Design the sequence.
């Protein structure tokens, strides 16, 4: 299921010395109908088995252009736009340092990712500043959404707890305490139904 997200593989110019690529070109984005203004760049580093998300902003939504500069992640967006035909649907794409894909998650979507490599460095540009206290979240394993996280094994027991989940190679799923407390899609539908 593909919501109104956008992903691309930038043109990479490589030779024996290494490579060069444009990671952002405003004209190219506008040609795809994406007219956004980025105001903040972020970068994170995570180890294998870390799952971050699913996060969204309640009053100050952010569009995010994400990419991986080291390692590999499975990146996910969930549509939370009020009145959208794809409300509650998800789309995922593997982002790696090799494929150099970039994924744009529009405002009004929840976002998260699972680290598949030993380590991953994740970069993203945002269309709004971070506002403390404005973050919301969704259970990463909500069966109503039904995200198919690759290489992940375990059984849903009614909560967002990571207990009992591992990657196929036995790496334990690593989720922050906060992200293990989020509810499912029904718990956030009221937030967005009034917008």
Sequence:
């Amino acid at each position: 299921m593909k919501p109104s997200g956008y992903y691309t593989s930038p043109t990479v110019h490589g030779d024996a010395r290494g490579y060069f690529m444009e990671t952002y070109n405003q004209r190219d984005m506008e040609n795809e109908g994406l007219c956004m203004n980025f105001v903040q760049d972020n970068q994170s580093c995570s180890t294998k088995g870390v799952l971050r998300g699913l996060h969204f902003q309640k009053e100050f939504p952010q569009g995010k252009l994400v990419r991986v500069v080291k390692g590999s992640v499975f990146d996910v967006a969930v549509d939370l736009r009020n009145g959208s035909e794809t409300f509650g649907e998800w789309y995922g794409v593997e982002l790696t340092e090799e494929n150099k894909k970039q994924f744009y998650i529009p405002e009004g979507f929840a976002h998260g990712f699972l680290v598949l490599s030993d380590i991953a460095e994740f970069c993203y540009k945002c269309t709004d500043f971070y506002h403390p206290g404005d973050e919301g979240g969704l259970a990463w394993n909500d069966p109503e959404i039904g995200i198919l996280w690759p290489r992940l094994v375990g059984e849903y027991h009614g909560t967002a707890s990571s207990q009992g989940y591992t990657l196929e190679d036995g790496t334990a799923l690593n989720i922050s305490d906060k992200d293990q407390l989020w509810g499912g899609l029904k718990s956030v539908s009221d937030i967005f139904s009034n917008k």
Observations:
- The radius of gyration is 17 Å.
- The mean pLDDT is 90.
- Residues 185-193 form the longest helix (9 residues).
